[in-house]
Design goal:
Number of strands: 8
Strand order of the largest sheet: 1-2-3-4-5-6-7-8
Order of helices and strands: HEHEHEHEHHEHEHHEHEH
CATH superfamily: Phosphoenolpyruvate-binding domains
CATH class: Alpha Beta
Oligomer: single chain
Low-confidence stretches: none
Number of helices: 11
Structural class: alpha/beta
Shape: globular
Number of domains: 1
Radius of gyration: 18 Å
Helix content: 40-55%
Distance between the termini: 47 Å
Length: 253
């Protein structure tokens, strides 16, 4: 369960899923030592129907999940929850108002405004009383605040302080774009922005996560304070492994 991963500051490792939806995906990731998967709908062709299948494969294998829905729209967020997403990470959370609206869409009344549907994917198809189903869903589903704009950096401390926000996530590429320094991750401006997210996480006892393209970046992010490391992703890992193999074969031919 993703929420359980946010309860400690121990290192948790995961990867990004935005291209492949094979039935074996969950077992492949679990056997590789994967703690969580970041499933993306914003930058993929995944429909909710596909996501429903992907999440089931991952959860059945014991891999926790974060799902990025296509937008901050309440119906996108609530549907992500209904599909069984354990952590919901809407794109570009920039204000406390946005964050509160997302938390409302994730939670059933009286905590939030999510529409009621029980005995489906998010319930693992169990039959429960309405009261028990609401209590379980509200207790287990997490809001992950995706901080990837200059506005989000300015408001990150207030966002992190919200009850119902379990995790801060740095969207490093969009953040660099928003700061006007696209791809310049070694600049003072970018590092100061990252430090503000890390400090907000420490001050409010929240996990901090980031996607990293390589091992060196992972070690840097861990040193800065991240405890959720999303190492590369399905399409890039496949492409790079294949490219490296082809190059080695050609060199030896």
């Amino acid at each position: 369960m993703f929420k359980a991963l946010t309860k400690s500051r121990e290192l948790k490792l995961g990867t990004y899923i935005g291209e492949f939806s094979s039935p074996g995906l969950g077992r492949i990731l679990k056997n590789a030592g994967c703690d969580f998967a970041f499933v993306d709908m914003e930058h993929s062709g995944f429909s909710f129907e596909t996501v429903n299948v992907v999440l089931r494969h991952l959860h059945d294998a014991g891999v926790a999940t974060i799902l990025r829905p296509p937008s901050h729209a309440a119906h996108h967020i609530s549907r992500a929850c209904d599909m069984g997403a354990q952590g919901v990470c809407p794109p570009m959370t920039g204000t406390v108002v946005q964050a509160r609206a997302a938390i409302d869409a994730i939670n059933f009344p009286p905590v939030g405004i999510r529409g009621a549907a029980f005995g489906i994917a998010h319930d693992d198809y169990h039959s429960r009383s309405v009261e028990d189903a609401i209590a379980l869903a509200n207790a287990k589903t997490s809001f992950v605040a995706l901080i990837e704009t200059a506005e989000g950096i300015e408001n990150v401390d207030e966002i992190a302080a919200l009850e119902g926000c379990d995790c801060l996530w740095i969207g490093h590429v969009d953040l660099s774009n928003s700061l006007g320094i696209p791809g310049q991750f070694e600049t003072k401006m970018f590092k100061e922005a990252t430090a503000r997210v890390m400090k907000a996480g420490r001050d409010h006892g929240k996990s901090v996560g980031r996607l990293v393209p390589n091992v060196a970046d992972a070690h840097c992010c861990i040193a800065e304070g991240a405890d959720l490391i999303c190492y590369s992703g399905d399409v890039w890992l496949f492409r790079e492994a294949l490219s490296d193999g082809f190059a080695a074969i050609r060199r030896g031919a």
